[in-house]
Design a protein that fits this description.
360 residues; alpha+beta; nine-stranded antiparallel β-sheet; five-stranded antiparallel β-sheet; 9 helices
């Protein structure tokens, strides 16, 4: 009888060992597969963030570029619009700004240095302050003309496009023919995107899409402020510790998410105080264009990608970086639960073995 019990126990033990080996093998295969799956999903998650950011920036710039391209085809603007606030071209400029809320202003510049501009305020206190605009101003009309003496006129309109007030300045020092957007458009003979530069009246940096007016030496321009670009980028959250940055070809920062202080715009990436931007600066030279890479810096692994965004007249770069751990953590709880379930179901547990054999 004792031999029979020992024999049965030996068979059960053998079966338990076999079950353990099979379960262990399955568990290892599952963990290997799930780890690869987690890695793939983390990479895809980061890549989707990158693609979204690139699409967003390209869309904003293309919108400005297309607006300038279409407006430059006007064949009835060979001289300065007449009648100031009652100019026949004013409704078009207002409508372009209404339809494209990311734009700051639209304007004409002429070879004799006449200039006609419409600025969208959009409730921006800095715009109101810089232009000494009265309360309730939604639109600012600016005209520089030479009627024997150069004069700059300002018109302030409310949301209903009704005149609030007007004012004028004698002998303005602004000459459109000396601005980068004007010379670049004439030289190209087509629509171009400017290098980032400082806007004259706003005293803030921005980018202009400009094109040579049809059949004239005049130029039509469309402005995007860098603060406007920054607002769009700030809405894109890469990850808990990730960063997104738009630079020019010289690595000067134009906008980022998280947002940088306005006084840091147009400064070198290497001058940034943000820790992740400093990491981006350190790995920038190692990044190939439009290639998602995993890079290490000071013991931490990062996902990183740099994308060139080319336009006639300029090249911009969008960089995105985040710790790999930010994305791997998405699956940490899943793995933790799995490990616990395996441990709790361990068939080698001594108490369990005793309970299974005691009744034999």
């Amino acid at each position: 009888m004792g031999m029979r019990v020992r024999f049965k126990v030996s068979i059960i033990t053998l079966l338990v060992v076999m079950v353990v080996l099979v379960c262990g093998s399955i568990s290892m295969l599952f963990l290997m597969a799930s780890s690869q799956f987690s890695s793939d999903i983390a990479t895809q998650s980061f890549k989707s963030k990158t693609d979204h950011a690139v699409t967003k920036v390209q869309g904003l710039l293309k919108m400005a570029f297309s607006t300038a391209s279409v407006a430059a085809q006007q064949n009835d603007v060979d001289q300065m619009p007449q009648r100031f606030i009652e100019a026949s071209q004013l409704p078009l400029l207002l409508e372009l700004l209404s339809q494209n809320p990311s734009l700051y202003s639209t304007y004409y510049g002429f070879a004799n240095d006449d200039f006609y501009q419409v600025i969208a305020v959009r409730g921006d206190e800095e715009i109101l302050k810089r232009h000494a605009a009265p309360a309730g101003t939604a639109w600012i009309v600016r005209a520089i003309v030479n009627d024997g003496e150069r004069v700059q006129r300002w018109g302030f309109l409310n949301k209903q496009r009704q005149i609030i007030s007007t004012t004028s300045d004698p002998m303005p020092d602004y000459n459109p023919t000396q601005r980068p957007w004007y010379s670049a458009a004439l030289e190209a003979g087509d629509v171009v995107l400017s290098q980032p530069y400082w806007f004259n009246s706003l005293k803030q940096p921005g980018i202009t899409a400009s094109g040579k007016l049809y059949g004239t030496d005049g130029v039509f321009g469309v402005d995007l402020t860098l603060s406007g670009l920054a607002s769009e980028l700030a809405a894109i959250e890469v990850s808990e510790n990730g960063v997104l940055v738009l630079t020019d070809a010289q690595h000067n920062v134009l906008a980022s998410s998280p947002a940088i202080a306005s006084d840091m715009m147009m400064k070198s990436l290497g001058d940034m105080k943000n820790a992740q931007l400093q990491v981006m600066d350190a790995v920038w030279g190692r990044l190939d264009n439009q290639v998602l890479q995993e890079v290490a810096h000071e013991g931490t692994a990062y996902f990183a990608e740099k994308d060139m965004i080319p336009f006639p007249g300029t090249e911009l770069y969008l960089g995105i970086l985040a710790p790999v751990q930010d994305f791997s953590d998405l699956f940490a709880d899943f793995h933790s639960i799995f490990y616990e379930s395996v441990a709790q179901s361990d068939p080698l547990d001594e108490s369990g073995a005793e309970s299974r054999t005691s009744g034999i």
